[in-house]
Amino acid sequence: MSAAPSSGAPVPTVAELEEQERRLVFRRFTHDDAWALGSLLVELAREREAPVAVDIHRAGQQLFHAALPGSTPDNDAWIARKRRVVERYGSASYLVGSRFRAKGTTFEESSRLDPDTYAAHGGSFPVTVAGVGVVGAVTVSGLPQVEDHRLVVEALERFLGE
């Protein structure tokens, strides 16, 4: 792990981020699952008084969205940009950005994608169904990027019973 963010916890490595993706896989992902996962994320965010917006998409359809106190329309724009990274790369937005940083560059410098459309910042995680692949994304925006990522991972771990 590398340097610690403001929370004091170490920043996850590329290998650790890849392990999260291998581990956090659904057997199925229904509308009801999206509601339950989104509700869990809102509950966790409320406990922390986190000023976030939460979004869950599957197959191009928004299944869940909530904007908590302190969030702004900018958070919705960040959600869309981070989600597009997951949809394009099939990996967590934080992992995609970390892979570019590990190569000594940045997503913005080297991806050749419009930064107004794509953001490889933490907070969007693929919804992967075993035997199917990536079917959507769960996204949080409003905290520093590593904290957005951690909130999503924590919710997925709880939801999947890990």
From TrEMBL:
SUPFAM superfamilies: GlcG-like (SSF143744). Gene3D superfamilies: Haem-degrading domain (3.30.450.150). InterPro entries: PduO/GlcC-like, PduO/GlcC-like_sf, YBR137W-like. Signal peptide: none annotated. Coiled coil: none annotated. PANTHER family: PTHR28255, UPF0303 PROTEIN YBR137W (PTHR28255:SF1). HAMAP family: UPF0303. Belongs to the UPF0303 family. This is UPF0303 protein ABT188_19815. The lineage of its organism: Bacteria, Bacillati, Actinomycetota, Actinomycetes, Kitasatosporales.
